[in-house]
Amino acid sequence: MNKPAFRGFGWRSPRPGAKPRMSQLALAVAAVALFAGACSSSDQPSTQTGGASASAPAPKGSGDAGSGTLTVFAAASLTESFTELGKQFEAKHPGVTVKFSFAGSSGLVQQLTNGAKADVFASADQANMDKAVQGGVIDGQPTVFATNKLAIAVAPGNPKGIKSFADLNKAGLTVITCAPQVPCGSATKKVETATGVTLKPKSEEQDVKQVLNKVASGDADAGLVYVTDATSAAGKVDKVDFPEASGAINTYPIAVVKGGQGALAKEFDDFVLGADGKAELSKVGFGPAQ
């Protein structure tokens, strides 16, 4: 007795000796091809080139260099400008916090060479940046991003009538300067040499903000600070410009510190050197890089 033909899935058993129809062969071949294609796609990586993928890198400026805390050692005269630039940088890099340490450049270099951890260093002169490079704490080549020059800070209204650098030697005046190893102190010495006027300061401070604060508080009649410091403290002090200051221009270099967050630090450097940095620095009187 003949067994009944299997009728599942639309298949009819061919008659004995009959050749398979072409349609049945085509269906069989297509099924095998589909199965092989499915296996291939599941075993091999995608080579798709169009569109975005989940692993695509984030656009530059959106925090792609990392997150966490970026530590910046910066000259005291950069306090106002860099504080604002830090806020702008954080806004462009979600998850990043910029922490600043503002002080005299010479003191910051000493901290770095003694092992203090930082990601970026911005100096108020080339000499102290050179010391950092020689100390082996700088990664790559420093870049100058701004210039600055001295001005005389006096009490509002200039009650002592100070009009020139030579006036700082008037009898009865209390004058404050920066220490010689600090950039503003080094610039003061250059002016003294050029003018032949040797000052007799009551004290020599370790950063320019200390000089400014003593004038603002009334502890001093005058102090040699940067144009930018006197401008930032408008209302607390008045500014007296003098022509000899142009002979003692300070350049401000910035660099990535070894052992820190190199990629994120480089992004901060680029930000300071870019249009946003230049705009903020110019607000308080920093000159362009030379």
TrEMBL record:
Q: Pfam families this protein is in? A: SBP_bac_11 (PF13531)
Family affiliation: Belongs to the bacterial solute-binding protein ModA family.
Q: Which GO terms describe its biological process?
A: molybdate ion transport
Residues annotated as binding molybdate: S77, S105, V208, Y226
Work out whether the entry's keyword set contains Metal-binding.
yes
Q: Carries keyword Cell membrane?
A: yes
Q: Where is this region: Disordered?
A: 44-64
Subcellular location per the Swiss-Prot or TrEMBL entry: Cell membrane
Range of residues in the leader sequence: 1-38
The protein's job, in short, is:
Involved in the transport of molybdenum into the cell. Part of the binding-protein-dependent transport system ModABCD.
Named from the GO MF annotations, one term is: molybdate ion binding
Q: How does it assemble?
A: The complex is composed of two ATP-binding proteins (ModC), two transmembrane proteins (ModB) and a solute-binding protein (ModA).
Q: Which Gene3D superfamilies match?
A: Periplasmic binding protein-like II
* Entry's Gene Ontology cellular component terms: plasma membrane
Q: Which UniProt keywords apply?
A: Cell membrane, Membrane, Metal-binding, Molybdenum, Signal, Transport, Tungsten
Membrane topology label: Lipid-anchor
Protein known as: Molybdate-binding protein ModA
Low complexity composition bias: residue spans:
50-62
